[in-house]
Design a protein that fits this description.
Blueprint (H helix, E strand, L loop, with lengths): L9 E6 L5 H8 L9 E4 L12 E7 L5 H12 L1 E7 L1 H4 L2 H9 L2 H9 L21 E3 L6 H12 L11 H7 L5 H4 L16 H4 L16 H10 L4 H9 L12 H6 L1
Parallel strand pairs: 1-2, 1-3, 3-4, 4-5
């Protein structure tokens, strides 16, 4: 009687337009995954990369150039699971926020000259173009959360990812509230948890790098910060810096009219 061994799951770690912070976090924690997977592609860390389908693709970076989109479509076609890792992939991050403040052509002209023929496009998250199975925010991602997500997907289960605000982690860490006690422009009430409240734990304001929490009250956050003396321009810049969806700011119009 012969037994058939279950094939080792294959993974790919891919990068689009981003700072590669997520790739570095994955590389630093790869030894914990290696016993359970075969790495088929990881150009950031190895030279022997193979084409073809994989069980899981972890993709960082936003779609900011035509070749990003071409690459993403191919990744999706060759992946059973596609996991967006990091704020660039999930929300568009700072490049999306920059594209909201001025056009891509304006930025291109300012940097490379009006006659530049470089092909770019407005920065967008992965889910604007393809089906994304799991989205893991972070700037960069939390390694423990990454390993937990990887373990769940390897077992063909969708992972649980908290979307509660950073304030919850501050309470768990018994941090004094920097918004109330220091009057700092902390975005903890509207930012997704997962970082362990790193900035407030050091006495600094959360600046929203993990993207919006579940049902964030952006209008209430803007009101609180404006009442504390911060200009609406500064409030909006902070709220939008990491690519939060534009529909979250629709209720800010009355506040802008007053400003």
């Amino acid at each position: 009687m012969t037994s058939t061994a279950k094939p080792v799951p294959t993974i790919a770690i891919e990068g689009l337009t981003g700072c590669a912070g997520e790739l570095l976090v994955i590389l630093e924690n790869m030894e914990k995954l290696i016993p359970f997977v075969r790495i088929k592609r990881f150009s950031f860390a190895q030279s022997d990369n193979q084409s073809g389908p994989v069980d899981i693709s972890f993709v960082e970076g936003s779609v900011s150039q035509p070749h990003d989109l071409e690459k993403l479509i191919k990744i999706r076609a060759n992946s059973r699971w596609l996991v967006a890792v990091g704020n660039c992939a999930v929300w568009g991050c700072v490049q999306k926020a920059a594209c909201a403040r001025c056009s891509v052509n304006e930025m291109l002209g300012a940097v490379y000259g009006a006659d530049s023929e470089i092909a770019v496009m407005p920065a967008t998250p992965l889910h604007d173009h393809v089906k994304v199975d799991v989205e893991l925010s972070g700037c960069p991602i939390n390694p423990t959360q990454f390993l937990a997500v990887a373990a769940s997907v390897l077992k063909d289960h969708l992972p649980y990812i908290t979307h509660k605000p950073v304030c919850l982690e501050c309470k768990l860490n018994e941090n004094p509230c920097v918004l109330i006690e220091k009057n700092l422009p902390c975005l903890g009430p509207v930012t997704a948890a997962g970082c362990g409240a790193l900035c407030p734990s050091a006495g600094a304001a959360c600046y929203g790098c993990w993207g919006p929490c579940e049902s964030p009250q952006m209008d209430a956050m803007a009101t609180i910060l404006s009442e504390k003396g911060y200009s609406m321009d500064d409030v909006l810049m902070r709220l939008k810096s990491f690519g939060a969806p534009t529909h979250l700011f629709e209720r800010l119009d009355p506040l802008l009219a007053k400003n």
